[in-house]
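Practice set, problem 2.
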Amino acid sequence: MENKFIVNIIHRPEMVPEYAEKVTGHGKEEDIGRKALLTESLDIFKTQQEIAHKNGLKTTIQMTYASLFNDEAVELAKADHEKYGDEIALSLLGLPCTEFREKYKTKDFCIWMFSMEDKKSIVDDVFGKFYDRFGFYPESTGSYYMDAELVNYIKEKYPMVKCAVATCWEEGPKAYHTCNNSWYTFMDGGPWAPWIPSKQNVHAPAANEAEDSGIVAIPHLSRDLIACYDGNGSNFGTHPQNVLRSMSYDSKTWEFPYLYNLIDQYRDLAKYNNGYAYNMMFVGPGWMNKMGRWEAPYELLLKSYEDGMAYYGQLKKEGKLDDMTMAEFADYYRQKKTLTEPECALWRDILYGSDKQLFWYCDPFMRVCVNMDQGGAIVDLRPYAAKLEWPVGIGTKHITDASYPFLIQEKYRAGYFTHYAGEGTVRSAKLTYKGEEVDLCLCRTKAHFSQEGNTRILTLDPVDIEFYDLTVKLQTKIYFEEGSSNVKIERNILEMSDPNAEVEINEYMVACYGTTEYSEDMSNITLTCVGDTESKEIKYAYKCREEQLAGAKEVVSVIPEIETRVSLSCEKKDAVGYIKEGYAFSPMFTLGYTTKLKDKEVFATWLNLAKAN
């Protein structure tokens, strides 16, 4: 199977780049129509285009609304389309300009934050102006985020649109905090690689043709799937600006090995995705202005861009890269991938020199992160199976928070390593022997990826668990069966220092729901142990109660607020299923199974997700 590595390079002539007016107009009253600002922006856009073309790369030119009023910008786009095959597309970023401000009487510039009525009006204005200037409608569009209602409206009214930049990976509270608590755009919980969004929620991929929104979505930048998850996303992506902002370059030589390592790790993802890998860069001119940015002078900003493009150009010359426009990529993706085919990424740390490894899995039913530093625990889980409708913008319940809710999220809800009381969200297992307890979260390991038919398998290196007078060698295997909306976890006792010993295993999941660090109201949650003849139920009331049932078929939590039913199940008849309610200081719930295991025995449990009726 031939490995194919595709890059989308997307430039936008932002005539009034975000934050540039404040820099170039320092000490002057705000004037977004100022000539110096417009001229410099266009010069930078031209520079970016020249650098791409010099390296033999074609681009997608996403015209902004402001640029459609500029004759030179329009002519440049037409000329580069003719000469280099660049696609002329339309961005819903870069709305602010004198014309826009006069009509909409607002400084808002994020399309998804407007009321639905304004979204439609803006889309019609922008698409109409584009048609006036070019005589056709665009096949591609985009923003930092596009909500489902917006995408559905665009597709219905402008059916030729087939591709869109639709979310920014892990731009949530972490990005907000590093912007001095001023960047009110939350969009955590979506895919990191291209996907076909559902009509109900852009983050959640479509499971079938009826759910297909009709576009191929791409992320805004290809992010580092560890550094960006652990820290601020804006610092760790394949946009040179990110690398400069994070200071992860050599300040003496101005070299950027991290950027190339990041691109290479994206190339490597072909191993886990049937020979296909993707990378993108989506840039406006604002970051490259003559006054410098992020403690970097203009010369460094320019060099970072030239070096990055030269690397893509070199890969193309060596036959290792295909540069595509957005529309071309959408056609390729539709032909290459089925709706239920997952996106997988076994990702290692390339920035800090640790051995850390995460595995990311995304399909129409879930997004899962498995952390090998915590023994293969699940540390992030988004229940896409619910296909949660989550309208965003003025006039909705979620004006600024477009994130897809989590059930488990170690950064916002503590994970295994908590303060001193209570529990954090995690899916792991504990082993107990003679009163001693060890959690697999404490057992670092490494993972190996394989695929058998429609099942992706993560095989973890065995770990040695040492009790006072017993050593247990245990191996974990995790199975993701395509289209199944569950994750199977298998624990295999490979050997014990005392072959006649018996250990207790407790397979557990501590969870909650939310999109930020702040706890939500858990009062409507129901927990149930379901048996063949009886069931035990807890209606959540923060009372710290527990129930258990021998031979339980499944242990279930129903969370009405996010329309999600999550359960653990197992086939071992003598296993005991249990449910635990949390309390106000630790507002979680726990689902689990306990059973006894002997040498050479295997215990399998399933984590199942469904939409709650």
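Problem 2, part (b): a different protein.
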Amino acid sequence: MYLYDSYDQAMVDARVEEFRDQAQRRLDGRISEEQFRPLRLMNGLYLQLHAYMLRVAIPYGTLNSRQMHMLADIADKYDRGYGHFTTRQNIQYNWIKLEETADLLADLASVEMHAIQTSGNCIRNISSDHFAGAAADELVDPRPYAELLRQWSSFHPEFSFLPRKFKIAVIASDTDRAAMRLHDIGIQIVKNDAGELGAAFYVGGGMGRTPMIAPMIREFVPLDQLVTYSEACLRVYNRYGRRDNKYKARIKILVHELGKDEYTRQVEEEFKHLLDQGVEPPLAELERLKPFFADPDFVDGPKTVDRSDPDFALWVERNTHRHKHDSYVSAVISLKPVAGIPGDASSEQMHLMADLAKAYSFDEMRVMHTQNVVLPHVRIADLHALWTKLEAAGLGSPNLDTIEDIIACPGLDYCSLANARSIPLAQRISTRFAEKGKTEQLGELKLKISGCINACGHHHAGHIGILGVDKKGTENYQLLLGGSEAEDTALGKITGRGFDEDGVIDAIETVTDIYLDKREEGERFLDTYRRIGMDPFKEALYD
């Protein structure tokens, strides 16, 4: 993984002291909350319903054990003993005191971490495939490219005050495990007919109030022009993006209103201008970064698993992913126990994950955008020992990509923007399907819950999505079907009128019963939905 140099460390340390002064001036009343707001947001500090919330950056989701131990210590020292892992591969703390925040940031800086640009109208945390560097199907490890973009975008003077927040994802396989086309810019590392590596650019995706799937605007950008092309995309957005209406300020609106072709024409024009100016960082900088992401020292060993223990066998089947070395797998630690809070981990669990990463995964782990954690390089020979320790700590749920593996935002329990609660709903859904024994029957079924239209729970991209809305002061839930965040990207469609909390849980069971009745051999829920359409589900829900 990338390690800070002296410049990185000095930059982060300076920001800590700058924020310490800003926070003290707010506490002393020398600046107002209105004046303080943009300052705290650029440092990832939100004011939520009950307290401040701090969002910590985890670039492309990669962590080592020292960093995870620090996140656990922070949970105990500054919060209430837990943290919440998010769909942007970050972690959030929900009970932060302003007077302690600078000390918290200093603790983060001591392990090469920060909260810079995790909020505000700037380029946010660069996300990537959580199996990067381990997956058997990737062309290359996409993280060096993500790191190059992270360094380029940090404190970029031109892009520190964009019309709206901006999110970039980088992948390097045809299987999209990062919801790449639902980002402002999605980049896929590809190979052209000549065998050269380059980047395909997708621009103008996003969820929220107006969900859109990013179109491809260029199928191949040479790698030594990756940053320049990104800059051209952002310059056109920064020039024309709406600043008079925050609901129309995202780049997806600009691409839609200009049209893909006109937006692309202007990007190409800006790209040529930038190339003529010679501003592209040398390819040597990318080469400098690559050794930080070199493969660990893999060793040959057993290539198969003893599946005589049925509980262990089920966990292996569901929660491990094929590795590029056939004596290893990537092992997913589920943060979704039945009736648990999706994405939450206690400080004790974080300490354990850190210890397990050091013992079994070359001191490395990844935060997944699905709000789980993965150990990317686990020897098949070590899997049973790993599972035994996870199971004892409540982290061994065998539910990856099932209806129990729910993505959910914090919702109305914490967020000042939310219209409805997400957490209790997720807990009740996982409990019902687990108790009825339906999880195994349903197979792959991705359910996502957002407490408001901002879509932090990615409800648009769920095979089944739930959106919390305010219906005359009462929590209400809309049901969506048919979404996907994978390479077959699709936006879910609303079934009809909304439901109360009890009603939406019953509605989900109705929808899954229709699927079980109508599916053909080998079909996932999404496949059956696409084959038979919305009508059979609507008839069962509303007739």
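Answer key, part (b): The chain has a mean pLDDT of 97. DSSP finds 17 helices and 20 strands in the chain.
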